């Protein structure tokens, strides 16, 4: 039996989102897989659906469909969508989850608190706040350490101005 814990993070100001999942063995609690990444979605609710889709695809790709799975989520919308096999707001995502779950012998869902979902939550938050690597218009490689120092110095100077005034 496997436990899937999923979570998502969304910043409404920047419209950045991230998803995460943790897959554990039920008896040993050993983590079999975990993943977190940034995605493009409209809101946090849609990101919650995408997190479960990502976890289910992982299990299918690794031939783990014979396992009983327990899906633990802190998203009431996702939980109800799985129970009803329908979502008015996210019909495409709900249908995809239903299709993916049909490949498993047995599964059940459980709504859990944020406190019980710490690992997936931390992964999602970390992925959300991870800065993207510069791909262009950045300083040359040899100059990059000095550039970071300059940015840090600028922050320190601004902080000192704040405290001096």
Structural commentary:
This protein has 165 residues and is of the alpha/beta class. It is built from five helices and five strands. A hairpin with a 4-residue loop joins strand 1 and strand 2 (16-25). Helix 1 packs parallel to helix 3 (91-101).
- Low-confidence stretches are 134-165
Query: How far do the termini sit from each other?
Result: 61 Å
- The rounded Rg comes to 20 Å
Gross morphology: globular
Order of helices and strands: EEEHEHHEHH
Query: Helix proportion of residues, in percent?
Result: 40-55%
> What is the number of beta strands?
5
Q: With helices defined by DSSP (H or I, 4 residues minimum), what is the helix count?
A: 5
What class do helices, strands and sheet pairing give?
Answer: alpha/beta
Mean pLDDT: 83
In what range is the share of β-strand residues?
15-25%
Strand order of the largest sheet: 3-2-1-4-5
Strand count, sense and barrel status of the largest sheet are: 5 strands, mixed
Give the tags.
single chain; 165 residues; alpha/beta; globular; disordered C terminus
């Amino acid at each position: 039996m496997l436990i899937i814990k999923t979570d998502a993070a969304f910043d409404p100001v920047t419209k950045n989102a991230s998803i995460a999942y943790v897959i554990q063995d039920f008896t040993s609690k050993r983590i079999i897989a975990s993943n977190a990444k940034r995605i493009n979605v409209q809101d946090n609710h849609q990101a919650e659906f995408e997190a479960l889709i990502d976890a289910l695809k992982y299990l299918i790709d690794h031939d783990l469909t014979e396992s009983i799975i327990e899906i633990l989520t802190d998203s009431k919308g996702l939980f109800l969508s799985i129970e009803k096999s329908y979502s008015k707001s996210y019909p495409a995502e709900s249908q995809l989850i239903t299709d993916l779950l049909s490949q498993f012998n047995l599964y059940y869902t459980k709504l859990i608190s944020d406190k019980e979902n710490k690992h997936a939550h931390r992964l999602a938050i970390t992925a959300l706040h991870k800065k993207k690597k510069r791909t262009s218009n950045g300083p040359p490689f040899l100059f990059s350490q000095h550039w970071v120092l300059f940015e840090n110095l600028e922050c320190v100077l601004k902080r000192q101005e704040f405290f001096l005034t």
